[in-house]
Amino acid sequence: MKSLEELLAIKAKMQDKVAVRTSSGDIRVVVGMATCGIAAGARPVLNAFVEAVSKEELGDRVTVTQTGCIGICQYEPVVEVYEKDKEKVTYVNMTAERVKDVVEKHIKGGKPVTEYTIGAAKL
Amino acid sequence: MIRSHVLICGGTGCTSSHSHEVINKLAEELKSKGLEDEIKIVQTGCFGLCALGPVMIIYPEGTFYSCVTVDDVPEIVDEHLIKGRIVQRLVYNDTGDKEPLDKSVPVSLSETGFYKKQHRVALRNCGVINPESIDEYIAMDGYFALAKVLKEMTPDDVIKCISDSGLRGRGGGGFPTGRKWSFAKASAGDKKYVVCNADEGDPGAFMDRSVLEGDPHSIIEAMAIAGYAIGADEGFVYVRAEYPIAVKRLSIAIEQAREYGLLGKNIFGSDFSFELHIRLGAGAFVCGEETALMTSIEGNRGEPRPRPPFPAVKGLFGKPTVENNVETFANIPQIILQGPEWFASMGTATSKGTKVFALGGKIKHTGLVEIPMGTTLREIIEDIGGGIPDGKKFKAAQTGGPSGGCIPASLIDTEVDYDNLVAIGCMMGSGGLIVMDEDTCMVDMAKFFLEFTVDESCGKCTPCRIGTRRLLELLNKITDGNGTLEDIDRLEELCNYIRQNSLCGLGQTAPNPVLATLKFFREEYIAHVVDKKCPAGVCKNLLTYVIDQDKCIGCGKCAKNCPADTIFKTDYVAPGHKLASYTIDPAKCVKCGACLSGCKFGAISKQ
Ligand SMILES: Cc1cc2nc3c(=O)[nH]c(=O)nc-3n(C[C@H](O)[C@H](O)[C@H](O)COP(=O)(O)O)c2cc1C
Fold first, then answer.
1. How many structural domains are present in chain A?
2. In this complex, is the C-beta atom of A123 within 8 Å of any C-beta atom belonging to chain B?
């Protein structure tokens, strides 16, 4: 180790790997992973979120977790996004493709993607 | 891409409750379900809650599972890791509140009663990182303190920073660390050493082991910082050979630090070079005493030498040496990074920062806790430790191991710091805290520690070698029921003599358990010599087992259980019973208690 820069580089490389354990996560992305969710393809959705959060270096703000049955099986995969002091947003019929939009527009941009939300699906 | 981390404790406590089998099973399950690329298993150091091991924590949810067995693993994988449903029956969520929480509400580790009042500085990475990965340590700001010291601070700045923080030695004596370093820096010499005392000889203490097992790099980093501050280029860690996991992890850590150039020549491109070696101790208590420890590292029999000269002047191989305890070192990187004011903001006027205690004895949550100095004994025992099991009453807490004293129930609101403990005739010691309930005999407790010091006295000086043996004989006489009131006076006189005349700390402090129990529990000694009774019902020779003739139904089970054939049938048939009752011959009774534990009718008691 010759310089502080080298040390910082290792830290940066690792941060991502330990963030799961330390991030307080202002934003929580919760993927429904009950049997119905998994059957409908929730796992690729979960993994797409994890990858996107890492790629966009959002690890210190965003926690991606899973939960059991949310109760609206016909709309699975279901994803809920919780943000401090904001109303919960529920996305339905999610796909890995849609995840990109949600990360880009909602998580980074702050604007929920209305057309994927449960409100839109019910119309 | 990893979405979840499963942390499993690989410390000594959980290893002995088979955490390795759990880890292997988990790896197998993840593989068979094709989850290896999504879920990572991390073996960590001690979480602290050893009584409930093996413990497991799953992130990002932070779910804390306790007492996990191999058979639980498939359920954890299927339910939690695949479906996201928490396995409620394994969740530990004792928040210490009166109303037990609904198990379906998982609480995070930091909300549990055991952790809520803790404040982790020395243990900050234990149970959080994989101790065998230098990269994870670096991710937690590891080696940034060393970088800061080498790039931005002079040795005097470092010493001032440590002095200002108020850090005092955690190995027992409580000597100000900054002052110790400044003495060693001031000593002239072309060669100096830094030594880490990881001998941890107090029975019941295991915080140093846990730091080495859970966060070995913090010790390496701190020793290098000490080396820079005093002008040393070489260090030794003296660790007892009974700590194989600690030794292994420390060896791996040293190897990794060398590879990264964090040990060796010209660290961070500076002029500073530092090398580190491990020396294994054979587990003699006296080798934890600093001068005996150095003698042992030099390859000689571990015996203490008179001080002065102090190690800072003439230490290892006759060179100026700084010797600190593991926990002392573990605080150093954080003090450098967060500043002396931050550290000094915790604790009391004269004792800054936190202290790690190994909770043991009659307490619900045995384990390792780190709390700000000045936390009351009541908070430690009742809130963090979960209180005394089986509804028994708290009697006293023993601190400082064989060199320490005890805090009686009447002083349970004492704020625990160096000076408060000394003021009541006790001492902090290295942080073993053994909780005793009403079933503990204080004379027997003092005897236990005396037996230890008699065994461990190195024999070099007479007051300790012979004096402690005579003390033990007097205690035996008292617990055997042959003591007199004069013996209590003799005990006190001998204690003071040994204290004043022994060569090293071992002898000087060996009488403490006797003196402290005499001070707070003198009436128990008097009961032993005058009434010939052991109030707690522990000292065998002062006990008699008796059968209540009117309660005995005459089943004869006790007579069958008695290994010494001392129980006989009488001619007496109690009113309402059909068979004649039994009785014990007190002269032949060996007091094993087999009759008492076997009697279903409550007819036998000890008096
Ligand atoms: C008999 C005896 C045993 C000791 N055992 C230990 C020990 O196991 N670990 C330890 O750190 N200090 C032990 N000490 C205290 C050391 O002599 C020394 O004061 C201490 O390691 C200094 O480090 P510190 O200033 O960081 O506390 C012992 C002292 C005596 C007298």
1. 1
2. no
